[in-house]
Design a protein that fits this description.
193 residues, alpha/beta, D-amino Acid Aminotransferase, Chain A, domain 2, 2 domains, eight-stranded mixed β-sheet, two-stranded antiparallel ribbon, 20% helix
Length: 193
């Protein structure tokens, strides 16, 4: 906590974003974690919100790349292994979209390449459950709490791609994107935001 506070002070940030990267530290080459006795912490400050499209609503495609299955690597383990997320984002870029939605290993909607997915249908709010190999993001949790306080029914259940296409509205949440409307992409059958 003190290192985070010091980073904010040294960068004159009262409102910003910090990314913490923790490794096992320096040590002998190899995969034995005992070779690295002292962790290394890198704190990266930013003064901006990280959004795929700035302040405008974004376009997304459903990627062919799948989210890493939870029995291989739990989504709650936030690691630097973003290869499938990056591959999905590249697929979105190649389709002239801002974002890509990944499906889980079972074929259900998981999350965006770096954000959580919500849809609105008939006045109710839907989002994939944690079991869909998603990161239980802080912003996701905040949206769920606020919706419940406003009397909006929140349903965490498996969503298929056609649920996205049939939604009344869709949006993404994340620390970097905050809450960002999701609208149609040109190459897919899409949903309105």
């Amino acid at each position: 906590m003190e290192a985070c506070a010091e980073t904010l002070r040294k960068n004159n940030l009262s409102d910003g974003y910090l990314r913490l990267v923790v490794s096992r530290g320096a040590g002998r080459m190899g995969l034995d974690p005992r070779n690295c006795q002292k962790p290394t912490v890198v704190i990266i400050p930013a003064t901006y919100v990280i959004t795929p499209a700035g302040s405008r609503p974004i376009k997304a495609v459903v990627a062919s790349v799948k989210r890493t299955p939870p029995f291989c690597l739990p989504a709650s383990a936030k690691t630097l292994n973003y290869l499938n997320n990056i591959m999905a984002r590249i697929e979105g870029i190649n389709a002239d979209a801002d974002e890509a939605i990944l499906l889980d290993w079972r074929g259900y909607v998981s999350e965006g390449s770096g954000d959580n997915v919500f849809i609105v249908k008939n006045g109710r709010l839907f989002t994939p459950p944690l079991e869909a190999s998603i990161l239980g993001g802080i912003t996701r949790l905040t949206v769920i709490e606020v919706a419940k306080k406003l009397g909006i029914e929140v349903i965490e259940e498996n969503l298929a791609a056609h649920d996205l296409h049939g939604a009344d509205e869709a949006f993404l949440t994340g620390t970097g994107v905050e809450v960002q409307p999701l609208v149609a992409s040109r190459r897919e059958k899409h949903w309105n935001g």
